[in-house]
Amino acid sequence: MSNYISESLASGIIRPSTSPLGAGFFFVSKKDGSLRPCIDYRGLNLITIKNKYPLPLLSSTFKPINDASIFTKLDLSNAYHLVRIREGDEWKTAFKTPLGHFEYLVMPFGLTNAPAVFQSLVNSVLGDFINKFVTVYLDDILIFSRNLSEHRQHVRAVLQRLLENRLYVKGEKCEFHVPSIKFLGFVLENGKLRTDPDKITAVQTWPTPTTCKQLQRFLGFGNFYRRFIKGYSQIAAPLTRLTSTKIPFSWTKEADHAFLSLKESFAQAPILTRPDPSRPFTLEVDASDTGVGAVLSQVSSTDQRLHPCAFYSCRLSPAEQNYDVGDRELLAVKKALEEWRHWLEGAEHPITIWTDHKNLAYLKEAKRLNPRQSRWSLFFSRFNFVISYRPGSKNVKPDALSRQFASDREMEPTTILPASCIVGSISWDITNKVLEAQQQEPDPGTGPPNKIYVPTNTRGALIHWAHTARFSIHPGLGRTISLIRRTFWWPSLYRDVKEYIAACQVCARFKASNQPPQGLLQPLPIPHRPWSHIALDFVTGLPTSKGFSVILTIVDRFFKACHLVPLKSLPSSTETANLLIKHLFRLHGLPSEILSDRGPQFISRVWSDFATHLGAKVCLTSGFHPQTNGQVERMNQELEAMLRCICASNPAGWSSQLAWVEYAHNSHTSSSTGQSPFEVSLGYQPPLFPSDSASSTSVPQFLRRARRTWTQTRAALQRTAERNRRIADRHRRPAPAYTQGQMVWLSSRDIKLHGCNRKFSPRFLGPFPVAEVLGPVSVRLDLPPSMKVHPVFHVSLLKPVVSSPLCPPAAPPPPVRLADGGLCYRVRRILDVRPRGRGRQFLVDWEGYGPEHRQWIPGSWIEDVSLIRDFEASRGSSSSASSSSAGPPGGVP
């Protein structure tokens, strides 16, 4: 409100007022979510002298169009603010707000004479064109010409004139250069004028009655026009006979012929008359639970009887069906005024509106309106009408039209409380099933008192009810048992519930495991000599120091020595091989085993061939289990800690300190060997201070001491490995013995899932079959290609699938069908979209498959394009339609 007032004051639309009047000011919501200002001018309109500016006569309007063959229709955007309020009358438009009292300097929306004034404005602007190649009716402008070249000149002249007067058109509502056009309820084509078929569609599309009640509605509608149809009784006789209660209702050819004849008669003269704006209009409206109907009529000058001008009916949308009775009846008025606006807006005489809802008669005097009525009141202010009450028994014509969409079946009660909130009926159902089953397996009488015995064949259903209902939502073993024991019992209750929960796929998929990880520690083999077994890794994310931002860490698994190599970026496989030759092999010889993670440098063919030529074995960690390369991971932690200690004040200088970090590590005593790497490899510990004397050792003595040191080191490593194994196994549990083909669940902890919020994503994926058992703690799985992860996993990331007859597995995916020679799968929903080349790819969720099968597929693969349209229309919300696609789950890169 503050923005609207300040902007209107700045643009000169309003000014502060001291008027004794003050209309109510409020905002109503538009369909797009924005707000429209609305002023309640009902009191002012009631005492305003109506502007009698003449509207064009239809007879004279269409005369110049007789030889026209091409048309353009323009719809003017509201230009009310271009019309100045007569000086001295501004006080009449005053309105009050919490921010003050204001009045309009220009014509606002909602004044009763605004349409007539606007008609006068447009006529003055286009006056020299009217009846030559232009006709104007309120804000509708029709341009007509004999040929296309002439028409283009006419359209250009009209648009230029409008532009000069700052009048603009709504492009989306205009029609340009068409041979046929609808205007003022008529169709203009090739110089001919014919009635718009929409006027009689409501009658011509009347569905064939299938019950006696539907037929009675049709005949009740027809009785109002029987005096205009010659021989009405004879024509309707076959239909009248069917309403008798003495004979069964049976639709015959004779009845169908009579039904079609009456529908045709309703749409022909002398029943249907041409609207005449110079005469008063009568509008009859009604609304049912499913539709609205209306009849526009005028008193004929020949017989002084009320003749229909047009009929209207439409089905209510699901949202409109939820309106209360008053709003549905008011909606019927609104839809009828919208349908015949070109005749009723600015009508010379007040429009009489008949309705069977008594409260509508007081619409203009209502002190309080709901938001929907407030929004409509701005539209109603454009019409001069009087609402009158008429009992439903006399409002038969619109009532019959509104009930075309109604079913004769008894309406089911409207659901006020959603079914999701009701659990009582479910409880009664399961109890009834148990009691029915007791007829085959009676209660043995050995259970606790006041508890219901559950027979064998209903135990699975009862556990399913207790475990999955909305009031429980998959609780654990203890809570499920406690819930069941409140009412039921059977001897094996604990064992059966435990078996069911272990087999519950929802729990297995969405609940995290609280048990220790599977798989006891399997220490790596202990080397027999220095630098025969090495481990590699990279430290990234460092601040740039003299161009370096990465560190290559090389660790000897025998005596824990390290080499640290600064790099400018992550190297390729070839570059990594050259780094080892330069910084390791020339100093310590060739290794027999190289351990690393699954970085791109180490899984390439180049790296594999390089190791093969060296005679070295390549060892890679299993998927998402960095503990396999624990020694180098621990070295990286120590490296980062040392750099933080000495480079905190100068992070960009870390590369200058890297050599000292390497020296410090190699001179420290290792907890695994009891000696420093320098001492194990060189046979001496570098002195801390300068020394004048140095002991000399013969070569044989040095060799004996070296061999003794290596033997002691290997024994120390074995003791350390055994100690570490015992400590680690305190927090682990033995892994089950997996077999090839066994189904397992895979932890989603380290796997990125598309289209999932991490909080609500499943904790386990699958189930997947075991393709190969590689060792005591490593398993290869058969994964879909769409997951794009290495299929070898540590057993701590797996858990076996448990099956039980008490908890049947989920339904299998829908069958694959053939389409154009290929397989066709069903899409459950579209999750996201991304550009790819000149087209787009969509992230789809396949029907019957888990999130691990989600994949990006080209839009051309989706057969049902409406699924794409629905997704684009609901960006976010989630749409949940289904469609078919030619792509296989898990098979797209």
CATH fold call of the largest domain: Nucleotidyltransferase, domain 5
What is the domain total for the residues?
6
Q: State the end-to-end CA separation.
A: 53 Å
Q: Structural class, from secondary structure content?
A: alpha+beta
Radius of gyration: 43 Å
Give the name of the CATH superfamily of the largest domain.
Ribonuclease H-like superfamily/Ribonuclease H
The amount of helix comes to 25-40%
Number of strands: 34
Query: What low-confidence regions span 5 or more consecutive residues with pLDDT below 50?
Result: 877-882
Shape: elongated
Strand order of the largest sheet: 1-6-5-2-3
Largest sheet: 5 strands, mixed
Number of helices: 26
**Beta-strand content estimate:** 15-25%
Give an account of the 3D structure:
Its main location: nucleus. Belongs to the beta type-B retroviral polymerase family. HERV class-II K(HML-2) pol subfamily. With about 900 residues, this protein is of the alpha+beta class. The protein folds into six domains: about 1-195, Reverse transcriptase/Diguanylate cyclase domain (Alpha-Beta Plaits, 2-Layer Sandwich), CATH 3.30.70; about 205-405, Ribonuclease H-like superfamily/Ribonuclease H (Nucleotidyltransferase, domain 5, 2-Layer Sandwich), CATH 3.30.420; about 425-505, Endonuclease III, domain 1, CATH 1.10.340; about 535-670, Ribonuclease H-like superfamily/Ribonuclease H (Nucleotidyltransferase, domain 5); about 745-800, SH3 type barrels (Roll); about 815-885, Beta Barrel (OB fold (Dihydrolipoamide Acetyltransferase, E2P)), CATH 2.40.50. The protein is about 30% helix and about 20% strand. It is built from 26 helices and 34 strands. The strands form eight sheets. The protein has a five-stranded mixed β-sheet with strand order 1-6-5-2-3. A five-stranded mixed β-sheet has the order 15-14-13-16-17. Strands 22-21-20-23-24 form a five-stranded mixed β-sheet, with helices on both faces. Helix 8 (about 230-240) crosses helix 9, helix 16 (about 460-470) crosses helix 18 and helix 22 (about 630-645) packs across helix 23. It is elongated and about 140 Å long. It starts with a helix and ends in an 8-residue tail after the last strand. The model is unreliable at about 875-880 (pLDDT under 50).
